[in-house]
Every structure is written in C-alpha cells, then in structure tokens.
C-alpha cells in the first residue's frame, strides 16, 4: 500500500473505502468487511446520511479489538449548510457524534457552495447564502480553528477548482492539505492535479469507477459507462485483473489517493487488491489517449436550481 505523508508525518493509506451511496443497512457490514480485508482509510460525509451506521461499525471493530482508532484514517466533510463560521463547529460535532469518534483524521469543505443552515438540498435561490457575506475564507477559518483545537488532524477541501484554491491560499493561515475531486480516465484533470501538487495539496479521486449507482437525479441518458470502455478490459485481461482494479491502479500510479465505493464483500476485497496491480507505461499512455471525456458529478444540482447564484464556471475550471 502506498501512503501520503503529511507535514507532521501522519500517514494516509492511498486506497480507502468510499461510503457515498452506501445505504444504511448495508454500510455497517461494508465497513466491517473492509476493515477485515485490510482497509485503514474510510471516506465519509455528513450529507451521505449514513454516518451513524459507519460509526456503529467502527465502534464494533474497536470494541472487538479488530483494529485501534489510531490505525484507521477517517475523513468526513462539512456540508454546505454549515459554512458560517459558528456553524462549522456544529457541523463537525454532529459528525463526530454520529461516527462516535472524538477526532477526525481529515475534515473537508464538501463544496464551495453555501446554503442556509436549515437547507440540505437547495430548491430555489432563497436557499443559498449570500456569498459576499459568507466567503470561503470565513468557512476556512472555522476549519483552521477545529485543527488548532485538535478536533481534526488535517483540513482540506473538495470540489475546489484552481480559482477557489487560489482564493483560499491568499487568505489562509493553514494551507489546505487535500482536495478531493472527481477523477477517472474520462476526467483526468491534469491541470488541476498539477496545480494542487505544485502548492503542496494532496489529491483524492472520487467516483473512480464512474459512480454507476449515483441517484437518478444525477444521471443523464447519454452518460457513458466508465467500466465498459473496451480499453480497460484489454488492459485488465493483459494483467489478469478486473476493469475496476485497472481504474483504481490508474489513480495510484498518478500518486492520487482513491476511494472506490462498494458494499459487496468480494468487490471490497478485490478493490483493495488493486494496490498491488502494476500498470506499465504503455497502459498509462493508452489510457491518457482516451478521447472520451465526461464529468459525472457536474454540480447542476446547485447551478440549475432556479435563482441559484452559482454557475458551472464558478465550480469548474473548464466546463
Ligand atoms: P457495489 O457497491 O455493489 O460493489 P464509485 O466508487 O465510482 O462511486 O463506484 C461505485 C459503484 O461501482 C457501485 O455501483 C459499486 O457497486 C460498483 N463497484 C464497486 N467495486 C466494483 C468492482 N470491483 N467491479 C464492478 N463494480 C464495482
């Protein structure tokens, strides 16, 4: 397993278990199977609405002596309705309570989008906060305070483009240590990845398998199916591995952490074994040559809300 080493020498195993879309009722078992298989990195978020079950599973594993708290790297994310400075702590405390933990290893601002505190998903323009009154620098200073208090060991962002990162870098005391973004061969985002790395920001790939189980509202009829591209099958056959393993190994070969989601025991195990898959230069080059490009999680659920103050160009460097 490859690790990311932070400035204080904390280590993040680069392959973790994703939990977005893992339903309550499934995620408990998935976490236990993952820990048993050897995962030591679990990616969570308040908005996934399953942190209580994740917490129950972690507690069970700790109580049974399967693994110690300090051996598991747990990430969670601040939802968009807790961007006001005094709300950041409230958001974290709820997550800590649900996860039954007294600290997180990494806490991320989930999106550079601010909603009113009673809103989970926006339905009209009134549901958004006035950005000029709640700039990202305010939310970030709330994150910095959590780090200073030892409630979270590391802080970072998710779904931030170069412009938004630059905005943070200009005002922050503590630099973001992670940007978690959608990354797979249909969306390799080399400029954003290089920008992050140049600024000492680590990168995690979400939806590395193309998130085929994303909710209907996040799907379009003509979305390409990542796992079905014939090139990946060809490379998988060459190495005697699965297509999913090729996709996971592709991120690791780019020195990017990766968090495939699964609730299936065999696939959970299979995905972790991708850490041992060696792609060669020809494989990486062939994947780089894929002309198909696609962003699955495009943020239209924020930008296309009537009266939304956000547009696609606020979210992405290129749309
Ligand atoms: P399941 O949970 O039933 O295993 P992403 O990580 O990009 O969001 O993708 C998650 C989707 O990919 C889920 O539908 C998940 O289903 C499926 N998946 C996870 N691992 C594999 C695998 N090894 N092979 C095929 N599909 C997988």
From TrEMBL:
<dbReference type="InterPro" id="IPR020471">
    <property type="entry name" value="AKR"/>
</dbReference>
<protein>
    <submittedName>
        <fullName>Aldo/keto reductase</fullName>
    </submittedName>
</protein>
<dbReference type="Pfam" id="PF00248">
    <property type="entry name" value="Aldo_ket_red"/>
</dbReference>
<dbReference type="InterPro" id="IPR023210">
    <property type="entry name" value="NADP_OxRdtase_dom"/>
</dbReference>
<feature type="domain" description="NADP-dependent oxidoreductase">
    <location>
        <begin position="15"/>
        <end position="290"/>
    </location>
</feature>
<dbReference type="InterPro" id="IPR018170">
    <property type="entry name" value="Aldo/ket_reductase_CS"/>
</dbReference>
<dbReference type="InterPro" id="IPR036812">
    <property type="entry name" value="NAD(P)_OxRdtase_dom_sf"/>
</dbReference>
